[in-house]
Amino acid sequence: MRSIKFGLLFVLAMVCSVLSAQNMLKDKLSTMSEIKEFKPLESTVFPEKYVTYFVQPIDHKNPAMGTFTQRVYVMHRGFDRPTVIVTEGYGAMYAERPKYEEEISKLYNTNLIVVEYRYFLESTPQPKDWKYLTVEQSVDDLHAVRNAFKAIYPNKWIATGISKGGQTTMFYRTFYPDDVDISVPYVAPLNYGIEDGRHEPFINNVSTAEDRKKVQDFQLEVLKRRATLQPMFDEYIADKKLSYSVPLDELYDYCVLEYSFAIWQWGVTMDKIPAVTASDKEIFDHWMKQSDPSNFNREGYFKSFFVQAAKELGYYGYDTKPFKKYLRLKSAKGWVNRLMLPDELKGVKFDKAVAQKVTKFLKENDPKMIYIYGSIDPWSASGVFQWLDLKHKKNLHIFVQDGGCHATRIGTMPEKEQTQIKNLLNDWLNE
Predict the structure, then answer these.
(1) What angle do CA 232, 233, 237 make, to 5 degrees?
(2) Model confidence pLDDT, tens digit, residues 91-135
(3) 71, 91, 142, 421: most buried by Cβ count inside 10 Å?
(4) Can you give the pTM of this predicted structure?
(5) Residues 195, 218: contact at Cβ < 8 Å?
(6) Tell me: the pLDDT tens digits for 131-178?
């Protein structure tokens, strides 16, 4: 009887020990003065997962301007494990999914921190003063988060992000080169102007002449069918309760011009493009799937992005020449300012300083970085591999997947390149 009782006590002690270990991160979060509040989240991947609300200065150079709370997701595997910090460029609501896991974190069994970008979703200061939506303020946010969590996660740190988040990874390494040990930006452009100018020639030369013709023929067909498709387009916008600063016939043109960028960006296969003889409904449905006018809604989700594009990040322009005969637009030049910016920011001047700072940093330094691009992704037209000489770089690596689009990842690479990337990461983590 005594041995049974002892056995039960031992099992109970073990259960209590496991439960205590599972709550160790919770205990540490509760002592962090930077965290206003936090809540547990369900995870099928991590023993502990929380959404935290991290107090940040609106202006890191002048804390007297006040604060806002930035949403930061923390997923825990062990205090002795490396930590991946996702330098998001937009909102981070996706991190709440119970099954969510980032690619590098999964490969190396790391802790995972996802930082929502300022001025998106729940990380938006009030009032929303656009003056403080800058690259420098955003990397200052990351620096503050990293400093707070470095005390509990002292092992190696990897920064990574996708697209605008990949830009953020690149900017973060430039402004704070010693904050993380490794940086992996995915499909990250570095633009030198609000309409950079390299994307339009890229689209005119990507893939094969036959494929480019199929894309352009579809665009021309949409323009030729304006009489029947414009009423469907107008109704679509009305149903979605969207509003714009330009007439809807001009918006129609922008959605046609956007189509080719979207097709190549997401690697849509040519068999998905309807024949020019297809019905109005088939043509319209496919067009809207690839080039939804919601993306041009200046009061929508991407508003903060377009503010940054106009100020510092840059964007792309449109080649109107093949479509001139059918367009209602007089010119697409200056379209970001005209179509996408809040009235108070119309005419804002683009500042090249951040792009120049990154260029200088990458030319003069050799950080442990792995850039990943897709060869048919129009954003790769302004990828750093277009100009960066790796001849004398030991640590900085660039991988371009042949036929890869904006969804290019380590796991989509050919096996040889996957092995090279994984070996690099493994070696760096074990140095």
Answers:
(1) 115
(2) 999 999 999 999 999 999 999 999 999 999 999 999 999 999 999
(3) 142
(4) 0.93
(5) no
(6) 999 999 999 999 999 999 999 999 999 999 999 999 999 999 999 999
- Tokens representing 207 are 């893939």
pLDDT at 347: 83
Residue count of the chain, please give it: 431
Beta pairing partners, 350: none
d(C-alpha 88, C-alpha 304), whole Å: 13
Would you state the structure tokens that stand for residue 148, as one six-digit string?
């707070």
Q: Residue with structure tokens 């200056």?
A: 334
List of long-range contacts for 47-56, beta carbons under 8 Å, 24+ apart = 47/22, 47/76, 47/77, 48/22, 48/23, 48/24, 48/75, 48/76, 49/73, 49/74, 49/75, 49/76, 50/25, 50/26, 50/74, 51/95, 51/96, 53/122, 54/144, 54/145, 54/148, 56/118, 56/141, 56/144
What are the Cα distances from residue 368, in Å, to 136, 202, 289, 430? 21, 29, 39, 13
Residue of 190, 85, 63 whose CA lies nearest to 143: 85
